[in-house]
């Protein structure tokens, strides 16, 4: 076998591997989007008959703790706590956990809510870093506000302290910078009330991007498309992921992630399975672990997903911050998948083992690596004069048209379901972003995903500094979230 | 071939109107040119690339995605415009019919207007009319309700509602809502069949509908409740009881139901509605096999302030799981039973934080004696107990 024959022999196999992978990926996404469409249609019809207000004054409604871990959030923490108090729910308390902030986060809270140290006895069911003190507001409006001041131990540790302090049946973990929809708790509680023979152990909702939206008194007053192109492309990404991906996974009972920005859990199950792990992808890790716990104890359970937009968050517009976030997501995914490799293709874990885990392994962890390998392979073929440029062109066009088609479907889903972007031009703007995304956002995401893999191999387990522009809440005059974006 | 065929048809259709024909031909020529050009690009691509199944497949998929995109984009824009139009039209019609119904109620409608109203044929208009009638009929006045019901029947809107019962589940729900609101009982038997459907929304609406349609036996559906009676269903039913002044039954009648979820609902109702006469029947359930039911029994007995139950509860204390033990201890505090202080002190030695906390809380609730004892115990107790006592005695928590 000479050199040319050898190259042809190798490329024969590699061609087929790459093409099969691409087809499998496209097929999976297509199937997921069809399932999502069906599930969304059912949800919307079902929801049109629901009156959430019946939960509000019902003595049968469960109690909920809203847990908010805060680390160096001095600029926004007071506004954010006030924003939490706009939610519609009766039986709830708010637990802010100051995770050893080095700025004036705690002092801001102390001052704004007139906090007073109380003799709170904590049942440390989950081991955590030391709690310095527990404070309660002396203001009657915030009588259900608890502030915990603790040693720095990371987000997971802060949440674990919150779980220990809470005595409610359910807890909702949210990010300090999240803006909740007023009916977020009502909508997330409902799946727990619909429990039949299968215990509902967690529920997640849709997180949307708030950049350029008008915020008034802690609420989203007007939804707008971000002016910043990076943020705008992330709107598309989030829509695809939350409306087309997670909705389908919930339907298939294979959902293995609930966004850290907002999720509701049954407290007892989380405690029994050991609480949040000190991991960089603590949100995904917790879902996988509680699912494992239930499967291993042979208990019937389900994880529900609410496709309504319930929470708004600020997307990074700075490349550095964006890169840190993406690298962290990649490392978190790898860490969770490697820690729970036992469930891979194991029927014992149901749809999570057979479908959810393999999908995340193949198309979330490996996809960027396969893509980079594919590019390297093409370069090698080009250098060895074995590359058909026509073939490269049509495969690239194929991938591009699919990417744009898939994003357009996401825009259609959004328009047919919640149509939160009311201005006619918004659809065009989103579609232009869909056309540009494969050239702009995708290569950047790909780079940081590969970087995340490398960093994971190098042993980097740090969270990374997340700088936020912060929301501009104006009590009288509505303002945009980020005037520069 | 196709173009020629279309040409012939168009000639036949528009033969006499030459300018229309011309416009149509220009239009078809325009698209034919584009189609030919696209076909030549595809042919050129096929010629350049080696003839393999894969290459063909990729090109066809590109074409499919491209065409799909061309269809999707206008669809998105059209749906946006259509949704806005539909919303506007609905609001306008709602306003129009609301005015007419109000005029009908004050007898301000002429014979002709009334006849025209009864002749409305459009499904959309009739749908809005039904919605208007239901939305206006919120007043407590029986006379107004009777008039509205009369108009609903005269317009034969009940026939539309009955037709909805034969359609898909979401139409069925609308039908049930309309018929139950207007008190049309002719379809009760058919509606009852929906109680055993797997669709939980349909089930809930059927239950609510039957509560309204069967005023003398509103909870008859509980007898045949086979599916789990979810808390969501219970919340909806309870809300209806409160808002519609429905005759409340004696819920202890269902305490021996084979469906645990029905028993739990009845226990909740007995507790919330303070049906104290049910206490002896509730006490009998203390030996129930389900821990969840037992938990509710304990909670109910406490809320019914059944002091005699405490002796029974104490007897089963050590046989119970932690949540029920906590509830038993809580009952002593809620009933302020000073005689049980020793029982509480005994259990303060427990290794379980939750039991110790609940014992201390109950001691504090008993009154001054309990508080004094707590303080003494804290002085000699371990660090955890001291912390718990401080927590319990802190009025700010």
From TrEMBL, chain A:
Q: Name one GO molecular function term.
A: glycosyltransferase activity
Q: Which residues cross the membrane?
A: 18-44, 354-379, 391-416, 428-450
Query: Which species expresses this protein natively?
Result: Labilibaculum filiforme
One Pfam family of this chain: Glyco_tranf_2_3
Q: Which family does it belong to?
A: Belongs to the glycosyltransferase 2 family.
The organism's taxonomy opens as: Bacteria, Pseudomonadati, Bacteroidota, Bacteroidia, Marinilabiliales
Name the Gene3D superfamilies on file. Spore Coat Polysaccharide Biosynthesis Protein SpsA, Chain A
Name the UniProt record assigns to this protein:
Glycosyl transferase family 2
Per UniProt, the keywords (alphabetical) are:
Glycosyltransferase, Membrane, Transferase, Transmembrane, Transmembrane helix
